[in-house]
Amino acid sequence: MYERYHVPKNEMPPMGEPFSKSSVIRDARCMNCGRCKDACIFSVHERSAADPRVMADPKSYLCKNCLRCVEDCPQRALSVELSRSYLELGGGLWTPQRVVTIWNEAWTGKVPVFGAGYRGKFSGTGYDSMWTDMSEIVRPTRDGIHGREFISTSVDLGKRVDYLEFDASGRLITKMPSFVEIPIPMILDLTRLDLTAQAKTGLMQAAKALGTMFIAPAEGYLPNGRNGSMVPLFSAGNTASRYDLSNPKMVEMEYSPDWASDLKALKERFGGIPVAVRIQAKSGIERLAVELASSEADVIHILYDEQSQESDGRLAKDSLMAVNRALANVSLRERVSIIAGGGLAAAEHVPKSLLCGADAVTMERALKVALGCHACAVCDKDRCTVDQNGITSDWSKWRAVNLVGAWRDQLLEIMGAMGVREVRRLRGEIGRAIFYEEIEKDAFANIKGGV
Ligand code: SF4
Ligand code: SF4
Questions:
Q1: Any ligand 2 atom below 6 A from CB of 77
Q2: Is this model's pTM higher than 0.85 or not?
Q3: What is the band of 383 on the pLDDT scale with cuts at 50, 70, 90?
Q4: Which end of the chain has fewer CB atoms within 10 angstroms, the N or the C?
C-alpha cells in the first residue's frame, strides 16, 4: 500500500538542565509573598522545599519572557534579562537565536514559532538577504502541509537524460544514467565532524531512519555503524579502500589535480552508481564545475565554510548561482547534480540553497549543534564546556532525526506557501526569490546619494 514519506519524531530533551535563554533575577527587596508563583504559569517560581516560608531560586530555563511576574511583584524585586551565556553563544552566521532554535528543534522535532514581538533585522548577508516568494500563501492554509495536497521532497542525484529514445518495436534504447533517489534533499556529512564514536553511530542510524545518506571516510569509518546509507568518501589518489564497501548508493572522491584518474578508477570499481566529486569552493568554481560536468562525474559536492562563503570570501548564495548559470549556459545543467554543504544554520537555508541552484544540501555543523555544540566563532577544544562523553547513540540518533524532521516540515511550509509541489522544481528558480540588494537598488539607486 502507498505510504507517504514522513519523518518519525521522538522528543529527546537535552542532557542535564536545559539551557536558559533568560535570567530571572530576584533581588533583596523580595518579601516572599508568593505572588510571582501565582503569576507564572510556567512554574519558574516555587517555594523552597526545605523552607516553604521563602521562595526557591527561579528556574530560569522555564521562563518564556512574558514579564507577568515582573508586573505583579509588589516589591519590584524581579527582573528578566537575556542570560550572559545566551549572548555568548555562536559566532557570525551562527547567532545565539539560531543555536537555541536548533537545540529546540532537536529536542522536540517541531517547527519553531517566530514573529510575535520580533525586533530583529529583516535582512542580513548571504541567504539572509533572500526572501522566498510566498504569493500562494493562502492555499496551503486550507489543508495544511500534511494534508491532501501532497508535496514531494524527493530528489534524484546523478546525471539525467534530456529525452528518451525508443526503437521501432517500442523498446527503450536510451542508456539510463546512474542516479540515486533520496526522499529529502538533505544528506548528513560526518567527514568534518569531531564527535565521539557513540555520537557518530547515532548520526549514521539517523540517516537510515530518515531514508537519506551519510558521508563518511571510506577508510576509518565505524564498522559497527555501517549501513546501506553510507556514501564512502575516498581521499585523493586512494580509491582502493581496504574495507568491504559493498553496494553503496553513491560514492564520493576528493577533488585533486589528478581527479580524472581517480574518477576513472571509481567508475570502474563501482559501475552503475553515481560518483560525486567533492570540491572546496573557491574563486573560479564555476569553470571547474563545467569541466567536471563534461566528464564522467555525476555529482559535484561543493563545500563552503561554516560562514557560508568560498575560501576567498564570495558568498555561497552568489557562488551557487554562478555555478548554476555557467552550467546552464553550456547546456550541461542536467549532466550533473549539485550538492552544497557548509554554513547551513537554519531551516530556511535549505530551500534558499536550492533556489540558488543546488539539487540537495549536506548538513554538518547543525548536526553537531543538535548534539549540544555552542557553534563558537573559534572552536577551541581546550576551553570547550560541552561534554560529549554522556552522548549515547540513541540520543544522538533522535536529536538528528528531530532536527531534520523540523527542517523538512519548514521546507514543506515554504514550498506550500510558494505553491511549489515538488522540491525538484525549486532548483535554480531565482525568479521565485527576492534579493534585498536588488530591491534596495531599485528603490534608492535613482535618489541622489542612494546606493
Ligand atoms: S512577587 Fe515579588 S516579593 Fe513576592 S515572592 Fe515574588 S519576587 Fe518576592
Ligand atoms: S517572565 Fe513570565 S514566564 Fe518568565 S518567570 Fe515571569 S511570569 Fe514566568
A1: no
A2: yes
A3: confident
A4: N
